[in-house]
Write a structure and sequence with these properties.
The protein has 8 helices and 21 strands. With about 375 residues, the protein is of the alpha+beta class. Among the domains are: about 130 residues, 2-Layer Sandwich (Gyrase A, domain 2); about 80 residues, Aminomethyltransferase beta-barrel domains (Elongation Factor Tu (Ef-tu), domain 3). The longest helix is centred in the middle third of the chain and has 11 residues. Bound molecules: (6S)-5,6,7,8-tetrahydrofolate. (6S)-5,6,7,8-tetrahydrofolate (THG) binds next to loops.
């Protein structure tokens, strides 16, 4: 592969030098920034993530901040998830939809206070949609992308590592909640969340200055735990069924097609844009939906386009958006968008990979 030319548009982070020093081997581009994808190799990173603890530069998870009396009203216009009764200190996975009910992003929203929210974005330029809505409806809310640089600490030893840096209290933070913890005289937001199923936290330093000291403190405190630089792992996240916006879904898909129906309370989501469209699709149910798919044969090549999925007579019945060889499950794991006629667990399929057709089977659950 040719190299990427560095430039100001590919924004650096407070951790970039640390990531480079740790020997990052590959990146992807995400929200106009570099997101590491490989350190040693994908499989070594995978085993280490499942056994130990890793520090991830996830600064690409940009925050859109909503501040002002209409902040919650605005967010409720953006998502069919009911935000009524959500308390400060909570995170929520919130599908964001357009006027047709199509997915625009699948961020984590953090309620900092009654009138202040962060929307922790997946890979799409949601800021402009949010600003457009606020301007069009003359809402009393300030919207910007503050200099917040999230750092994830993921893996079974993450809690032990964080307790050493932030104190034992951090163990009491429950899943998808956050607290404020002192680091060098400053309050840092620490949430129990992250883009893996191995357990862990996400820390959200505001401003550039604390980034490097924070990384160094975590590294120093975790040497005997085996802490290493890491990144979201393409194998582990498919096993875990964590969706990737732009890969597993696009603005052509409703949240229900994405299997995110449990995060929609469309009936109650007052003022949600796309509400009528979603109520219509909810009446009949989706005709295609995300499914775990096991693909037979040797390890598949990287999935960098949709792979067509076919039924017994060769007819197209869906597509694969993500796939990887799983060393632990000794099969290729994949995330598919599969038509209703073929989405039952056990259904035999054929997947058109770049290496030729492969037998495949719909699974009853993801692999964790
Ligand atoms: N953390 C934060 N921001 C993010 C991500 C993250 N922004 C980009 C991307 N990841 C958004 N996508 C997801 C997808 C899945 C989850 C979080 C963000 C996730 N899902 C859990 C699950 O499906 O099991 C839990 C959802 C729940 O129960 O509420 O964590 O990782 N800050």
């Amino acid at each position: 592969m040719p190299h990427l030319t560095p430039s100001r548009r590919l924004r650096r982070t407070p951790y970039s030098e640390k990531v480079e020093a740790a020997g990052v081997r590959a990146y992807t581009v995400y929200n106009h920034m570099l997101l590491p994808t490989v350190f040693r190799d994908l499989e070594e990173d995978y085993h280490h993530l499942k056994e130990s603890v890793q520090i991830w530069d996830v600064s690409v998870q940009r925050q859109v901040e909503l501040r002002g009396p209409d902040a919650q009203r605005l967010l409720q216009m953006l998502t069919p998830r009911d935000l009524q009764g959500m308390l400060p200190g909570r995170c929520a996975y919130v599908p964001i939809v357009d006027e047709t009910g199509g997915m625009l992003n699948d961020p984590v929203a953090l309620k900092l206070s009654a009138d202040r929210w962060w929307i922790s974005l997946a890979d799409s330029d949601l800021l402009y949609w949010v600003k457009g809505i606020a301007y069009g409806y003359r809402l009393e809310v300030l919207i910007d992308e503050p200099p917040v640089y999230p750092l994830a600490v993921q893996g079974p030893r993450a809690e032990d590592l964080l307790a050493r840096v932030f104190g034992e209290e951090v163990r009491r933070v429950r899943f998808f909640r956050f607290g404020w913890f002192d680091f060098r005289g400053r309050d840092l937001l620490v949430a129990r969340s992250g883009y893996s199923k191995q357990g862990g936290f996400e820390i959200y330093p505001e401003g550039w200055e604390l980034g490097r000291p924070l990384w160094e403190a975590l590294e120093a405190a975790g040497t005997d735990l085996g802490v290493r630089a890491g990144c979201p792992n393409g194998i582990e996240r498919v096993e875990s069924g964590l969706l990737s916006y732009g890969n597993d879904m696009t603005d052509d898909n409703t949240p229900h097609e994405c299997g995110l129906g449990r995060f929609c309370d469309t009936q109650r989501a007052a003022g949600c844009i796309g509400r009528d469209a979603l109520l219509r699709v909810e009446k009949d149910g989706p005709v295609q939906q995300v499914r775990p798919v096991a693909i037979g044969g040797d390890p598949v090549p990287p999935c960098d386009r949709f792979w067509t999925v076919r039924g017994a007579r060769g007819e197209p019945v869906g597509r694969i958006g993500s796939a990887a060889w799983s060393p632990d499950f000794r099969t290729n794991v994949a995330i598919g968008m599969i038509r209703l006629t073929h989405w039952d667990p056990g259904t035999r399929l054929e997947v058109e990979t770049p290496d030729g057709p492969r037998p495949a089977e719909v699974q009853d659950r993801f692999w964790y």
